[in-house]
Amino acid sequence: MIPLSAVNHYLFCPRRAALIHVEGIFEDNEHTIRGEIAHEHADLPGYEIAKGVTLMRALPVWSERLGLSGKCDIVEAGLDPTPNSEIRNPKWLRPVEYKKGKRRQFENDDAQLCAQALCLEEMFGIVVDRGAIFHAASKRRREVEFTAELRQLTENAIAELHRLIEQAQVPAAVFKPACEECSLFEICLPKMTSAPSSLQRAARRLFEI
């Protein structure tokens, strides 16, 4: 099983995904800490009912078919809670993911949410056709439809991620502006590791005895 968050990591940057999930390297920065703060309420397990909709927090989900596991921040369900708080025969389900930033669409965020939906579909045997991302900085919600294209993108990313982890290799860096916001920037060194081969050879000589 690979964690749901790895899907986001992979689509943001395969090298970041490998550093975290193959090499076991992770560092916090301002962005990761702000993300943890945004998740604080959603990470507390439990449920509540608001306007006739049951909201389940920190719901564990998994997919045997895709080899995925993790937690949904929030799952909205069209049902009433049973006396023992179990979920039985939901009419509909919608995963909701919390993100720290302003309301903007990112492919990796949508795919992570779609991966949650695929897990819910396998667990409950119903179609999950949409979900939402709540952007903490702007306190706005963005609806996400799980189209055939998004589902294909998500399943392809999951398959590629499994291969990456099985091969246990870290891809070469490809520097882009978003790299400087990554918490692994100082470890990955994308400006150096994506440089021309002559510069890479010079860098390696620094560590030769």
At a glance:
The chain has 209 residues and is of the alpha/beta class. Helices cover 39% and strands 22% of the residues.
Helix-strand blueprint:
Layout: E1 2-3, H1 5-12, H2 14-21, H3 30-39, E2 46-50, E3 53-63, E4 68-77, E5 93-99, H4 107-124, E6 130-135, E7 140-145, H5 148-167, H6 185-188, H7 190-193, H8 197-205
Main attributes of the structure:
single chain, 209 residues, alpha/beta, 7-stranded mixed beta sheet, 8 helices, 39% helix
Walk me through the structure.
The protein is α/β, with parallel strands linked by helices. It has helices at 5-12, 14-21, 30-39, 107-124, 148-167, 185-188, 190-193, 197-205, and strands spanning 2-3, 46-50, 53-63, 68-77, 93-99, 130-135, 140-145. The chain is 39% helix and 22% strand. A hairpin with a 4-residue loop joins strand 3 and strand 4 (68-77). Helix 1 crosses helix 2, helix 1 runs antiparallel to helix 4 and helix 1 (5-12) crosses helix 5. The radius of gyration is 19 Å and the shape is elongated. The N and C termini lie far apart (41 Å).
Assembly state: single chain
Shape: elongated
What ranges have pLDDT less than 50 throughout 5 or more consecutive residues?
A: none
Distance between the termini: 41 Å
Number of helices: 8
